[in-house]
Each structure stands twice: as structure tokens, then as C-alpha cells.
Amino acid sequence: MSEQNTLSLETFPENQIAIVIGATGGIGRAFVTHLKVSGHFARVLEYGRKTEPGLDFENVETVARCAEDARRQSADLGCDIVLIIDATGYLHDEVFQPEKSLKQIDAAYMAKQFQINAIGPALLMKHFCPLLPRQGKSVFATLSAKVGSIGDNRMGGWYGYRAAKAALNQLVKCSAIELARSKRDAVCIALHPGTVDTGLSGPFAKSGLNVQSPEQASANMLAVINNLAADKSGGFFAYDGQELPW
């Protein structure tokens, strides 16, 4: 899939607002760059732990604060918020690594997985999805992971990450159902970015896997977002457009 094609966002109304959350991460920065270069939006708003105002899922009050900032900018510009991309995620850090067996399950690690990969995005849906317009195409897309698919799980392991992403998928489905009642053209989806060369998944890339750059992965996902309509809301899609099993 070529980057040139993925930057076509013609299914969205022009000169409105796009938002990237997790904008200071590898994939988030790439989304911001693509959206700005496209010239399709009047403004691209960026939120993350290093932005002003900042958004940090471990400080939940910041989610509502950033949503209010977005609402205020939308009102000041007289533009609708038509695209919200949640590019946040957590897999490992200097303390915790993905579990390979039951004996490695750690309550603190699992709690952090759910805080960042499920509870945080749920709060985004709570505070940001009401900002989408009642009419016309709009999208809330959050980055999930194929390993969160229960139907696709053949390997086991990675208990906390898999479980948190499976929870995120359920939250997306619930939100899509509720959104459809008042915003019939809205799309709420979970996206699998593939294996991307970032600090999150890059260290776990196995030989033979298709490892994408953040620029490639984000461009591919924008193509998927552009092609989806409201009848696909609540779905779980890979970066190549494939619909994934729950």
C-alpha cells in the first residue's frame, strides 16, 4: 500500500479538526505528520504526556482537561472534530516484561496494562466521543493489537497485554453501539497496527515478520480509516484492512 494513496482522506469533510492522542509516541508522531501534510484539516490537535495541556492515563483528570481544550478550540474555529486517533499503548518498561507463563503474572504489571490499554482509552471514549458531530462521517479509532484477539490466540503468554487489549475491543464495541444512537454516521473502531519499529513492539519482532516503520503503519491505517463507513463501526481491523476475529 503506497503512502501516496493512504494520504487521501476524501471521505472526511474538509477544513475540520483531527485529533491525535499519544501524539508524542512513534506512531502518534507519524499520524500527526501525515494528517498535517495532507492539508485536509483546518487543525490537527496533539495530546500526550509531553504536550500542553498534557494527557496521561496515570493521571486520569488530564483526559477531561484535554477534551475540554479540544471542545474550546473547535468552538473558537467554528469547526467540527471529525477524526480522533488514539495512538497510545503500553507493553513493557524497565521494570516489567510480557509474561511467558502463569508463574510470571504480576498484579502491578497487570494493573498497569489495564490502566493504559483499557481504562485510559475508555476515558477517551467517554470524554472525546461526545465531541463528534451528529451528522457526517466521523471516526474514533484506537490502537488495539492482534494478540488481543481471543479467537486468534494460538500461542498463549503475554497475559496482561492480551487481556487488556481484549477488554479494549469490548469497550470499542459497546461505544460503537451507543454512538450509533445519536451519531448515525460515526465510526468507532479498533485497529491493529502490525509489528512496528518502535520502542513498544520493535524489541519483540521475530525474524520473518513484516516490520513496518511508524510512517508506513500510520499511512496504512489512515487508508483503512478513510475507507470505512458507519456499517463497519464496532469492528476490529488490521492495518491492511483485514477484519480480525474477536
Query: Please, what is the average pLDDT?
Result: 94
Q: Runs with pLDDT <50, length 5+?
A: 1-6
For the secondary structure, the number of strands is: 8
**Ends: how far apart?**
25 Å
Q: What is the 3D shape?
A: globular
Largest sheet properties: 6 strands, parallel
Instruction: Work out the radius of gyration.
Output: 17 Å
Strand order of the largest sheet: 2-1-3-4-5-8
Can you summarize this structure?
The protein has helices spanning 3-6, 26-38, 61-77, 107-128, 159-182, 214-227; strands spanning 17-21, 43-47, 81-86, 138-143, 186-192, 195-196, 211-212, 236-238. By secondary structure, the protein is of the alpha/beta class.
Describe the protein's architecture and organization.
- With 246 residues, the chain is of the alpha/beta class.
- Helices cover 38% and strands 15% of the residues.
- The chain is globular, with a radius of gyration of 17 Å.
